[in-house]
């Protein structure tokens, strides 16, 4: 981050500061934000700018509107209400995103005031990174701050394009996310244990490949383990499997052996006769998966082996649940791994990925972790070694 300016170096007093945040939070039918993690994560940056006496203009997307104008279902109104509570001050939600009416609202702001622009994806030029749209956004402000790590892997007008036209800075959340994840990759305390699960090998192969170059131990669970078990020559019944990826999984097994990375795969699994909470289940060793059953969790022997490896780690990175943790009969593997990570208080423990974070929250273990990334796709792309457009844009124009 050395070549990216921090908001700590910004003299924001009296300035109009356009801040891209990631307020893409879940909202229930009554218009209540059901998980305000992403709002809270942006508070250090927002409060710093308020305290500095900046005029804070916030912009975010929420969901996937058509991009043809205002849609009530995707309005930021519920976000604005929750944010007012969190900040303890009134904020103004604009109807327009750019143009004279917004400029008028901004001109009326006092130092320390906060304005939230409506859902930036109400205009389809946002996702197209349209230069004129980015320019019009920039015209609202004197300075740009990006604190939206969760959308840093997108090159949109408000995440990247606008940085062409304004002095640009990274907010605290952006800095923390990038510093934690790159620090883990570049200079982990060892042993470094990476745990990968979730549904598909095809989704995660680049992450597996990248972590193979960094980690000492690689633990595989979740739906994708069955493609690995196929590569080991086992039959996996009706489990989730990707036939086109068996060869690639075999190459990963070979790569681990060549590099001296300890690759841990399941030795037993929980199988079910169908994908349902009330399915018939059994625990079997991986050489005895019935043809008409599917594996929906790692088994207890596997969980014990994984927990022991995690207990010996100095750095843990975890992405992807070990099983279908959303259903009670298949949550034990994910819970055992979550507990093992939580119990290793000597290690740096970093959780990334939407469903893995949901699992940790479900088990009430979030507080025991060192760091929980707010970016699913963005953290995966960073771990894969890909440049994030939202970060690169700050690099180019850093003041
Ligand atoms: P993350 O969001 O943490 O990156 P993924 O999106 O890759 O994780 O995968 C999460 C999903 O994988 C969960 O909904 C979970 O139910 C599913 N899953 C885990 N294990 C299995 C399995 N054995 N069979 C089918 N789906 C699974
Ligand atoms: Mg997911």
Automatic annotation (TrEMBL):
GO biological process assignments: gluconeogenesis; glycolytic process
Subcellular localization(s) per the UniProt record: Cytoplasm
Pathway assignment: Carbohydrate degradation; glycolysis; pyruvate from D-glyceraldehyde 3-phosphate: step 2/5
Cross-referenced InterPro entries: Phosphoglycerate_kinase, Phosphoglycerate_kinase_CS, Phosphoglycerate_kinase_N, Phosphoglycerate_kinase_sf
Residue spans crossing the bilayer: none
Protein name per Swiss-Prot or TrEMBL: Phosphoglycerate kinase
EC number, UniProt record: 2.7.2.3
Enzyme class, UniProt record, top EC level: transferase
GO MF assignments: ADP binding; ATP binding; phosphoglycerate kinase activity
SUPFAM superfamilies: Phosphoglycerate kinase
Pfam families per record: PGK
GO cellular component terms listed in the entry, alphabetical order: cytosol
Positions of substrate binding: 22-24, 38, 61-64, 121, 154
Subunit structure: Monomer.
Binding site for (2R)-3-phosphoglycerate: 38, 121, 154
Similarity comment: family membership: Belongs to the phosphoglycerate kinase family.
The gene coding this protein: pgk
Keywords: ATP-binding, Cytoplasm, Glycolysis, Kinase, Nucleotide-binding, Transferase
Signal peptide range: none
Catalytic activity: (2R)-3-phosphoglycerate + ATP = (2R)-3-phospho-glyceroyl phosphate + ADP
Binding-site residues, ATP: 204, 295, 326, 353-356
């Amino acid at each position: 981050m050395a070549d990216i300016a921090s908001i700590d170096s910004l003299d924001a007093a009296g300035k109009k500061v356009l801040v891209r945040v990631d307020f893409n939070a879940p909202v229930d039918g009554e218009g209540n934000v059901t998980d305000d993690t992403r709002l809270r994560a942006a508070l250090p940056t927002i409060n710093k700018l308020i305290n500095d006496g900046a005029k804070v203009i916030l912009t975010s997307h929420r969901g996937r509107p058509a991009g043809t104008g205002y849609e009530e279902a995707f309005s930021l109104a519920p976000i604005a209400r929750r944010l007012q509570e969190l900040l303890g001050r009134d904020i103004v939600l604009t109807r327009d995103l750019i143009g004279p009416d917004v400029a008028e609202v901004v001109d009326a702001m006092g130092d320390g005031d906060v304005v939230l622009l409506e859902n930036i994806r109400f205009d389809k030029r946002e996702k197209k990174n349209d230069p004129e749209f980015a320019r019009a956004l920039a015209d609202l402000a004197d300075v740009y701050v990006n604190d939206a790590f969760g959308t840093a892997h997108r090159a949109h007008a408000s995440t990247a394009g606008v940085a062409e036209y304004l002095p640009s800075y990274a907010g605290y959340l952006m800095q923390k996310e990038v510093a934690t994840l790159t620090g883990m990759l570049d200079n982990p305390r060892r042993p470094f244990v990476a745990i990968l699960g979730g549904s598909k090998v095809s989704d995660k192969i680049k992450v597996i490949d990248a972590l193979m170059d960094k980690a000492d131990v690689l633990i595989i669970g979740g739906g994708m383990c069955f493609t690995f078990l196929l590569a080991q020559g086992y039959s996996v019944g009706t489990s989730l499997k990707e036939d086109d990826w068996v060869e690639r999984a075999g190459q990963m097994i070979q790569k681990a052996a060549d590099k001296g990375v300890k690759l841990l795969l399941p030795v037993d699994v929980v199988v079910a006769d169908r994908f349902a909470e009330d399915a018939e289940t059994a625990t079997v060793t991986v050489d005895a998966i019935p043809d008409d059953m599917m594996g929906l969790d790692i088994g207890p022997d596997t969980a014990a082996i994984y927990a022991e490896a995690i207990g010996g780690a100095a750095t843990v990175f975890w992405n992807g649940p070990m099983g279908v943790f959303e259903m009670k009969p298949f949550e034990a593997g994910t819970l055992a791994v979550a507990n093992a990570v939580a119990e290793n208080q000597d290690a740096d423990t970093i959780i990334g990925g939407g469903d893995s974070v949901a699992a940790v929250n479900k088990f009430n273990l979030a507080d025991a972790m060192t760091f929980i990334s707010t970016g699913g796709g963005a953290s995966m792309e960073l771990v894969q070694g890909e440049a994030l457009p939202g970060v690169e844009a700050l690099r180019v124009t850093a003041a």
